[in-house]
Every structure is written in structure tokens, then in C-alpha cells.
Give the backbone structure.
Amino acid sequence: MFNSLFDHVDSIIVRDPAARNRLEVITCYPGLHAVWFHRVSHFLWGIGLKLIARLLSVFARFLTGIEIHPGAKIGRRVFLDHGLGIVIGETTEIGDDCTIYQGVTLGGTSLYKGVKRHPTLGKGVVVSAGAKVLGGFTVGDGARVGSNAVALKEIPAGATAVGIPARILHPDLPQSADSKTKEYFSAYGVTPNVDDPVSMALKGLIDATIEQEAKIAALEKMIAKLNNTPAVPGDATAASDTKRDLDAIKEWLKE
């Protein structure tokens, strides 16, 4: 029991540079307290004491500002960082080593009882501040949900979801020197070396527009030059220049 407790506390120290020692984490981290309360209320819920479990969860919400339904399943070493305003629904399943920041909602979009209404988070998922993950789908292992994103569909393992509604970014984890001994952790779901697909599309359109404008300017210059060239019968040089310019225009048009 104590080994599991200290394992959880040590995992928080690894992920939060503000945590200085075990005593500080045990006494001052409401996210840790909320998980402890949930362990008890979930046990009570499982043995059929549902009203007592709900009352305990309400008491825990009063103390910590974190609302976790007793029916939710939470894995080991889950870190509710800051925690205030987190809401976790009844059929939510959270895997080991997940990190959830303040203002997150793991909610459902269905009103039917007895169905999986809330999301399932794989191992090592990071859900950043203010994000909403709504529905009975799965967020893959190691995925990240950006701040204030609204995720409404499945997120692949290792991917990052940003925006409203959430868009999927390609996974691109940096390799650190000690990557063999220490896993990479992206605080607040922020990942370097990854671009928003919408931004990339807009950049491509802008680059294409600039290229087209350059080609049009070159064509206009060539046409103006041809129009200003006097037609001299028998002048082989002028005819050669005209042919060369026309060939150049054709090449531009082919591109």
C-alpha cells in the first residue's frame, strides 16, 4: 500500500518541477487528494453502496474542487495537476500515468443509461487545461489534447489534438539524450516540432500565390517587350529574339 502511495507521489514529482519533496505533494496537492477520495468512493460504488459513494464524492468535490463520479475507473499514477474544475464522468476510464490539467471535462454526449458515454484514455495521455473530451471513444496511448480543444472523435496513439473541433496533428516526439532511461513528458500537451495542419495548408496556399504572381509578372514583362519590338522585315536578329521570347512564354505556361 505504502509502496503504491509513494510511487504515485514520486511520479508527480517527476512531472511537476514545482514539487520539491514527498511531504509537500502529500499535504498540498488537491489532485492527489481527489484521487485518494475516489479510490474509496469507487470501492463503495462497486459493492453497491452507491448513495454513500456519491456523498463521499460530493464531499471530495467540496474539498478539492474536482468532481469525479464514483463509477469512473482511474489507473495508477494519474496526476490531476492544479485540478480545479476537472469533471470526470461515470463511464470514464483513465489509464496509468495520465496527466489532466485544470478545467478539463471528460464528459458524455449521450443521455442513455447503461452505455459507454464517456471517453477512455490510454496510458500516458496528457489532457491540457480547459480541454473537453466528449463521447465514448478512445484516446490512444501517449496522445495529447491541447488547451481548450474540444475532442469529439477518436485520437490515435501518440497524436496531438488541437482546436474546436479538435484536429489531429502528426506525432513528432523529440529524442532526448537520456531517452533510453526517461520517457518524454510534454507539459500541457505542448509538443515541439509539430505544425497545425490548417496553418500548413494556409502556408502552402500563400507560397503558391506568390509563385503564381511572380510568373504572371514575368509573362507581362515578356509580352510588353514583344509589343514594343518593331517588326523589321528581313531582320533575323529580331525574329530570333521574338521566337526565343515566345518559347520562354510557352515554358512558363507549361509550369
About this structure: The chain is about 40% helix and 15% strand. The chain has two domains: 2-190, 200-254.
